[in-house]
Write a structure and sequence with these properties.
Rossmann fold; 10 helices; ABC-2 type transport system ATP-binding protein; about 300 residues; alpha/beta; 2 domains; about 30% helix; Alpha-Beta Plaits
């Protein structure tokens, strides 16, 4: 077993042409290794190829070219073992309304060949907070409860890897926090987590590493901290002691005055230092009352790389 939970090499997927649509290349030779034990973010705009990649990992879509290894098992050579190593929490609910949560988990475990004596239905129901709803019909569950049940179904066969596809889309803050508590607990126990999300602040807070896909290509893969440092820009928000009009500053410092009279000064730290910016302000006669730093976040990185 290697140190990688997933190894993807030269992965391509082309959807054949139909009467109404031309052939579409969804993935254009993706190379990506995801380390064991990490919380790994897979980001990209709509139509970037994320869902295709996840569906290939899940065995729901057949790749056109390349190789995929899941927990050391090649998808082509060991399809059953590779599928058993990964659990998928899908974006769209796929629950039978006439099954209870307990019944739904039991059936899912049976589909994976988990012997009845080895099933962890009660344990999973407790983890996802549905023990008191174990025997209620799924159709009577709230939307948030159904999302939690999807997580439970992904865990019935004790996979080493868990894929969360937009897990918090359309859910409230309470459920979102509960979900992340569960995810952190599973990760602390050694499970590798792969997360796709449109809430970039979640990826920034949760993920050790992030890969961004756009137009079927991997455009960047790095640690979250390194990605945040890639933007060579910084903004100081200066509150002057007295109201000032536009200040004469060097061309490499762009400025904007906010409605409350603060000065937003943006610049590239590679060209000019913080102290030099402040010196220019003092030379212009600005008396500084307060300083705040506006640090770029993952959304800024994402937009700069995908635009």
């Amino acid at each position: 077993m290697t140190a990688n939970a997933i190894e993807i090499s030269g992965l391509r997927k082309t959807y054949a042409a139909s009467k109404t649509q031309e052939a579409k290349v969804a993935l254009k030779g993706i190379d990506l290794n995801i380390p064991q034990g990490s919380i790994f973010g897979l980001l990209g705009p709509n139509g970037a190829g994320k869902s295709t990649l996840i569906n290939i990992l899940a065995g729901l879509v057949t790749k056109s070219e390349g190789s995929v290894k899941i927990w050391g098992f090649d998808q082509d050579e060991n399809p059953r073992q590779s599928r058993a190593s990964i659990g998928i929490m899908p974006q769209e609910p796929n629950l039978d309304p006439y099954f209870t949560p307990a019944g739904s988990l039991d059936v899912q475990a049976g589909l994976y060949g988990v012997p009845r004596m080895q099933r962890k239905t009660a344990e999973i129901l407790e983890l996802i907070g549905l023990s008191d709803k174990a025997n209620a019909y799924a159709r009577s569950l709230s939307g948030g409860m159904r999302r939690r049940l999807l997580l439970g179904k992904a865990l019935v066969h004790s996979p080493q890897i868990l894929v969360l596809d937009e897990p918090t889309a359309g859910v409230d803050i309470t459920l979102r926090n509960q979900l992340w508590e569960n995810v952190r607990r599973l990760n602390d126990e050694g499970m590798t987590i792969i997360l796709t999300t449109h809430y970039l602040e979640e990826a920034e807070q949760m993920c050790d590493e992030i890969a961004i896909i756009n137009h079927g290509e991997l455009i960047v893969r790095d640690t979250t901290s390194n990605l945040l440092s890639k933007l060579d820009s910084k903004t100081l928000v200066i509150t002057p002691a007295e109201a000032v009009s536009r200040v004469v500053l060097p061309a490499e410092i762009s400025q904007q005055t906010t409605e409350d009279g603060a000065l937003r000064l943006s610049y590239r730290p590679a060209n000019i230092s913080d102290n030099e910016v402040l010196d220019h302000l003092r030379q212009a006669g600005v008396v500084i009352k307060d300083i705040q730093t506006d640090i770029p976040d993952l959304e800024d990185v994402f937009l700069s790389l995908t635009e």
